[in-house]
Amino acid sequence: MMKSRVSIAKEKHRNGYNCCQAVVCTYCDLLGMDETLAFRASEAYGLGISKRYETCGSVCAMMMLAGLKNSDANLKQPGSKFSTFELGNHMAAKFEEWNTTCTCAKLRGTDGVTDRIRSCRGCVADCARIVEDFLFPGEFEPYEERAEDEV
Q1: Residue 50 structural domain
Q2: For the chain, what percent of residues have pLDDT higher than 90?
Q3: Which residue, 36, 108, 145, 150, shows the most beta carbons closer than 10 Å to its own?
């Protein structure tokens, strides 16, 4: 069983990776993508998709990873897209169960502090936990922390 990588995702975010990059780059090696390509591919998804404060970048990361994990990569006759949609939907629903929304602006609140639901780093941690639970069931040790700086 592998050690949880949630702390690695949080550290990447602390070191300048955007929310999406922090999550995608933490697990990309397990799904056949090198970190440089993952970093580049996920760069525009920070701050709720390119600073639009719409879908949380960490949630976008989960969707990218779900595709990498679940896709049949059949370019001529794609057959996995609906099962990937279902997988992504379940992952987003778990995030919403914990945080009430997947919308960056609502999660961050008006000023990112006083009325926020969850910090960016907290969203990174939550999405990393969901990735481990949904995409790699039974392969990672459970991650239990929920530090105050994540709220």
Answers
A1: 6-141
A2: 91
A3: 108
